[in-house]
Write a structure and sequence with these properties.
This protein has 603 residues and is α+β, with helices and mostly antiparallel strands. Helices cover 31% and strands 24% of the residues. It has an 8-stranded mixed sheet, with helices on both faces. It has a 5-stranded mixed beta barrel with strand order 1-2-3-5-4. A 4-stranded antiparallel sheet has the order 14-15-17-16, with helices on both faces. α4 (136-158) crosses α6. The chain starts with 17 loop residues before the first strand and ends with a helix.
């Protein structure tokens, strides 16, 4: 080894020892006869002192060294002189007096600082990702990711799970998300698809009798990207036999609780985790992945809306549309002009989500003053008191009225909650608010295609008591699905699966799948289901997203070593890139160049 200790290891008890360190020059301070170098590796930083008087050769090498040069230093550990301790470093009570320095490698001047945080254009960071990953924050994120993965593996091993790898090259099944296709060299005109998830394989493993399977799996989806999506991502995939929904949820909650408390450095808001039905989540928060670190619930006041003098509300209630009110604490404690501007901005958001408008009532801070806002005149004194009582409103609060179809009300509620929480800084990043959402609809009506679509995936089992509605009222069926949400993100989702071939065929028929076509797509699974399949269920975690929350980062690119940009490109290696003609010929592919001129003309 080129080092006896790491740069984060030395303490007072090492004083008097001769050690060898190796790492990068984090900072260099030249004081003439003395040069101080902060030597860095991923474990930390140690101060090295080079004295020209006692060691001119080492001093010359130190003089020639710059930031990010790679050095090997041998010297004596000593207590730092009085008054020079650095409490910000774990090694801050000691320093190494250099006896010998070797320059292992030089470095060009980096395109950005490594040793301190600064705002760097993301394109530059992606281009020099290998340097970006040297920065302490990024190294902490990657180490946190490693610790998360290791904890999961150790925990599940103790619970008698076994990790089994499944194929990445799979069969295209266009009913799911858009897939990446891989042409076959041996089979002209045919393609593999990169697996979107191990879903079918893990069910086949239950058929195979393994009972408790998991995998830290790489998955691929050719989707439009955003802060929480990448074309290739990592998930914890897990499946269990002879279980019911509660068994899976209990295991996952225990694992997640331990993981948060022992690895994440964050605090849990709910223990045990909060539970909401899909309907409860949508009615109160407008989202099936609600952020529960703050309130801003939408409270149903349809009965009051139908009795007040507000024509729009009265008409909507008569048409069966709900009336909701959202209390925004302290939002009315501003001047009239600012209040009107704030309300106008919120109305613009609401209209963008499909609403026709957004009415409000502002409660004065002084109880002697009149209630303000365009909606105030439509409610009697008694009705206003009822509103205050139901919402728990206080002086200075703002009440927002949302009324339209349920779909629009949900969308408006969600966007208002997210926007107001960001403006009011309501979501504490050190708090993790997990909640289970369950009892999702099994299928949803697709008006454009005039058919039922699965709300989760087509292998999700219905609640057993709801199978009776399959022919008469399919929309009434609930699926045995369960999602785990945290701070406004879905971090895990799973279900109890269909384990009987006849039921799977009925579901395929319900969602408009021709049985012959279904056998071409899923025949292997349907055939496997004829050989004694145990009841089974599982779940998949979005590990990138979870580590993002643990690290308090704004997007998953910050916790992935080599991510793609928002356009799916790798700037560092210039991917995707053209393939050579010989490569294309080997896989029986020809590339048709787009006619730019014709494309611009719309042809």
């Amino acid at each position: 080894m080129l080092k006896t200790h790491t740069c984060g290891e030395l303490r007072l008890e090492n004083a008097g020892q001769t050690v060898t360190l190796a790492g990068w020059v984090n900072r260099r301070r030249d004081q003439g006869g003395l040069i101080f170098i902060d030597l860095r590796d991923r474990w930390g930083v140690t101060q090295v002192v080079i004295d020209q008087a006692s060691n001119p050769d080492a001093h010359q090498i130190a003089s020639d060294s710059r930031s990010e040069f790679v050095l090997q230093v041998t010297g004596l550990v000593r207590r730092r002189p009085e008054g020079t301790d650095n409490p910000e470093l774990e090694t801050g009570l000691v320093e190494v007096v250099a006896d010998k320095i070797s320059q292992l490698n030089a470095s060009k001047t980096p395109p950005f600082y490594i040793h301190k945080e600064e705002k760097i254009e993301e394109v530059r960071r992606m281009e020099y990702r290998y340097l970006d990953l040297r920065r302490p924050r990024m190294q902490q994120n990657i180490i946190l990711r490693h610790r998360t993965m290791k904890f999961i593996r150790d925990y599940l091993d103790a619970q008698r799970f076994i990790e089994i790898e499944t194929p990445i090259l799979f069969k295209t099944t266009p009913e799911g998300a858009r897939e990446f296709l891989v042409p076959s060299r041996y089979h002209a005109g045919k393609f593999y698809a990169l697996a979107q998830s191990p879903q079918q394989f893990k069910q086949l493993l239950m058929v195979s009798g393994y009972e408790r399977y998991f995998q830290i799996a790489r998955c691929f989806r050719d989707e439009d990207l955003r802060g929480e999506r990448q074309p290739e991502f990592t998930q914890l995939d897990l499946e269990m036999s002879f279980v019911e929904r509660e068994d899976v949820m209990s295991l996952i909650e225990a694992l997640m609780t331990d993981l948060v408390e022992k690895v994440s450095g964050k605090q849990l808001l709910f223990k045990p985790f909060k539970r909401l039905t899909f309907r409860e989540a949508m009615e109160s928060y407008g989202s099936d992945k609600p952020d529960l670190r703050y309130g801003l619930e939408a409270i149903d006041i349809s009965d009051l809306g139908g009795k007040c003098a507000f024509p729009v509300l009265v008409s909507n209630v008569a048409e069966g549309k709900p009336v909701k009110v959202m209390r925004v604490p302290g939002a009315a404690k501003v001047s009239g002009t600012l209040l009107r501007k704030q309300a106008a901005d919120l109305e613009t958001l609401a209209r963008g989500a499909g609403a026709k408008g957004l009415a409000y009532i502002a409660l004065p801070e002084n109880e002697a003053e009149e209630v303000k806002g365009p909606a105030a005149k439509y409610f009697t004194v008694e009705q206003k008191m009822e509103l205050i009582q139901r919402t728990g409103a206080q002086p200075g609060d703002l009440l927002l009225f949302i009324s339209d179809t349920r779909k629009v009300v949900y969308a408006v509620t969600d966007i208002l909650r997210r926007t107001l929480a960001a403006q009011m800084n309501l979501g504490d990043p050190n708090i993790l608010a997990f909640c289970w959402v369950y009892d999702f609809p099994l299928v949803e009506w697709n008006e454009d295609e005039k058919r039922w679509d699965p709300s989760h995936h087509l292998f999700t089992a219905p609640v057993w008591d709801d199978i009776q509605y399959m022919d008469s009222d399919p929309g009434r069926m609930r699926g045995q699905q369960y999602d785990l949400a945290c701070n406004g993100y879905e971090v895990a989702g799973g279900s109890i699966r269909i384990h009987k071939a006849d039921l799977q065929e009925r579901i395929l028929k319900l969602i408009g799948q021709d049985l012959e076509h279904a056998r071409k797509m899923f025949g292997h699974l349907l055939e496997a289901f004829t050989y004694g399949v145990p009841p089974h269920g599982g779940i998949a975690w979005g590990l990138d997203r979870l580590v993002m929350l643990f690290a308090g980062e704004p997007n998953i690119r910050e916790v992935i070593a080599f991510p793609k940009t928002q356009t799916g490109a790798d700037i560092m290696v210039n991917a995707p890139s053209p393939a050579a003609a010989k490569q294309l010929a080997e896989v029986h592919i020809s590339v048709v160049e787009e006619d730019i001129e014709d494309e611009e003309k719309g042809s």
